[in-house]
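Bug report (template v2)

What were you trying to do?
Predict the complex of my protein with S-adenosylmethionine.

What happened?
Run completed; filing so the output is reviewed.

Input:
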Amino acid sequence: MLRGRHQRYDKLYLYSLNRKHPALHEISDEDFIGCWEEDDLAILFFHRPKRELVEEVARKFGLTLEDQAEVTYDEWGEGRKVGTLQVGPLTLRPLWQEGDGLRFDPGVVFGSGNHPTTRLCLSWIYRLWEEFGPFERAADLGCGAGLLSLLLTALGAEVLAVDFNPLCVALTEKNLRLNGLHHKATVVQEDVRKVLPLQAELVVANLFKGILLDLFGLPSFWTARHYLISGFSPSMEEELKAALWPKVELKGREEKDGWVIWHLENKMLKP
Ligand SMILES: C[S@@+](CC[C@H](N)C(=O)[O-])C[C@H]1O[C@@H](n2cnc3c(N)ncnc32)[C@H](O)[C@@H]1O
């Protein structure tokens, strides 16, 4: 995350350690961006080279530094630029851009606004809001940087945001707080399969195919009226469709740069 003198991202210095450790989230250094956990690995991100510091931390907690890399922020985002997002009348701006609207730190996790699925989710949340809203309660499953939660709370919903990655949870909390919207959301570090059933009229799930298939197979997932499901490509659609609960209807679909979003409606909960 951006802090201290750092007001934007430029170069990223990554250090990969062989194991996770809670202390890796608490490193006190102005150049520390955060600790990303993936499977059993922990990857530390810094704005500047920090090999000595990382070696010291690794020694202290019995960890091994396995790899290191230096990349630009654009490379980390696979060349997709982070910039201002317009959703209906609402503007979402990265911290370094001046102007009105919602502000966010895009961080180094998924969901900084530069991915087609994030953009699809943002625009469909607004679309559903206009057609079926307002929604009192919504869920953002796999919240990443928290932009969907930011939009949902700005529109007026009480939001449950869930991600198993602690860096996503911290960044979502930061982004909500930056806009004075943290009191509208509960941000939870948990596996999305363990937070069911949800108390929400709208569930947004921008996840990976395997997790979507797991959720689709759980009757406790299907308690909301509206679902926005994304994170998959057209080639995965048949398999996902076959796993849908028979009582939901595919009401809308859009494709953007090889990624798909669905709007599903629960026929049992139609007024
Ligand atoms: C594709 S990103 C979506 C981020 C954000 N919602 C957006 O639309 O930009 C998926 C997110 O889900 C999280 N995630 C993946 N599987 C998960 C699981 N089983 N439980 C909780 N979070 C999960 C990842 O850490 C990641 O932040």
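What did the reviewer find?
Helices lie at 51-60, 73-76, 116-132, 147-155, 166-178, 209-216, 237-242. The longest strand covers residues 248-256.
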